[in-house]
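Researcher: Please predict.
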Amino acid sequence: MLEDLGIVGISWRHSSSEALQRFALRRGEEAELLARFAKHAGLSELAYLETCNRVELIFSRTPDTPAKDIRPLAYELLTGQTPAAGEAERSLKAWQGEGACEHLFLVAAGLDSAVIGEVEIVGQVRSCHELALDLGLSGYRLELLFKESLRIAAEVRDETTLGEGRVSLAEIAVKHIRERLAHTPGAVALVGISPMTERTALSLTKKCLDKKASLIIANRTTEKARTLAGKLGAKAMSLKEFVREPPAVEVVLTSTSSETPLLTKSALERIAAKSLSGQPPLFIDMAVPPDIDKRACKELHLKCLSMDDIVHEAESNRQARLVEAAQARQRVDNALLRLHNQFAECVYGPLFGALQNRYQHTARMGVNRLLSKELKGLGTAEREAIETWAEVLARRFAHIPTLGLRGLLHYGPDGSLEAFLEGLDAEFADELRQALNQDPTKNGHNRVAKS
């Protein structure tokens, strides 16, 4: 039932953050590129997930799409280059059917993250689905998949201890900021407004900012910086102003969507010269691609933690959380069973309905012949009683093969359903096949609500 679903992508497990940026779609062109790719690859549904640690395509094939490896096509979409022989297969990982569903569940629940149990990822998964909906690329299959993914993420967060403690990349950055401020109290500058900087800002205001430490929000759009700063009691300034006339700071954390470094050598020199402690500020670059010129930091002997450094630290802490993850992992297994049931009802509901209709049609034909010949002298009440009895009996008879079909769909080998249809008369088999090809969301059967 889930065999049409698939995922292709690359993550922190297989590559560095700098290498990941090669596979990110060009900003502002996602809609056009994804729509064109879905048509070219023969995909009925398509979603694009991009975070600082992964780039993945989540899709559903059409019934007529050949079951072939789409990694070469995905490689060309994501990089804009034609892959050499075997290059796409080496660079991109692929998941199919139930494996794809399981993978997205693990991702949404934070079980496939560098920081086990991280919380940012669920918002990114939700945004991924919303983009697909906005582009008209999400149908009932992806709606079911994302709905269950967000449900399992909520269960893991609310019903296990996995979400306690330092469970995000932002929290690891906060740890380094706190350590620095303990030695050299001063201002912290957050450059860019993103989920990463917002979470960092909230954590800092709760844990370590006091009268000796203040927060500065710098952003390309000053109004956005003022809005966030107003919530936190921080100072706001434009990015241009920050680069040209930087204030005295002990820490700078960046996370923007810029395609090129924002803090180049000259800007870094100006920021370092303003430090009141006499020590060069700590720089933390959590952007992909990087916001800070790494080579310039080395030349100026400035400490700069990159996204790869943060991820490496997170990975070193993974073992300590694996036991906690076991309980959450069981919930993922349960979610797979739920998804099977939902797909059976949603995708194959029209088939079950068609089966019921055929039984009732046969019963009505038989009753009509009976009432027009042998029992044509019956009164209206008796006729209605017989018609009702026949309809109820037809539904009961149809229930038996419906149960059998559900068993085949859940436990039977591939091809079981087609083998069942081949055993019927040709007209009836074609009728059921047509029911299977219907979109259940268009006839009101088990409509999936937007999550």
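Model: Residues 380-411 form the longest helix (32 residues).
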